[in-house]
Amino acid sequence: MEKSTLSIILPSYNQESYLPDAIESALAQTAPVKEIIVIDDGSTDSSLSIAKSYEGRGVKVIAQTNRGLPSARNTGIMNATSDYILPLDADDMLLENCVERIMEKAEETKADIIAPSFKTFGLANQEVILQGGLIAKSFVYANRIGYFSAFKREKAIAIGGYSPKMIWGWEDLHFWINMLLNGATVSVIQEPLVLYRIKEQSMITDANVHTEELLAQLKKDFPTLYES
Prior knowledge:
The protein is built from 9 helices and 9 strands. Helix content is 34%, strand content 23%.
């Protein structure tokens, strides 16, 4: 039986300062990556030209008009050709054994979602070790795994990918709940494999301003989960 394959999808919007480190971390993996796809979401800085400078090293680059992170990730999902997809934002990095450990866990568990623990860096430095036994109910009021968890492409396509309704953020929380409510299984790795950057201004700070609207959208899309 053939081993599962993995693609890294890397959405980018005006991240010229960080993008090279993200791409280099994807290229430096100790285990085979079927493809690395950078989706430039209408950047107005030099991000697109930076991404294209890596095409000679096998990185695929897709440029689209600015439609937001959910759309950029969905573009990556639709263009990927592997069994598992690992999202990586342009300001974060993978440790070099990240894909190796994820694929070991995938072969061992056959889980639909493989969630690695992580380290923060930048304005905060700490290790975040994930806890297992996760079900949809675990995610009602907080995310329990990182956006950079690998997932089966066919499962993501079956639920329509990331919701474009989550325009202010929390798109990964919505995505995980949708996956789990549709029968997906999740397995965590209690070893930090991703470097997650903490900075003053990010999508999380934007999302926090819109908590009420985002929570309202979750309740609208998953009423049985929030009523029970």
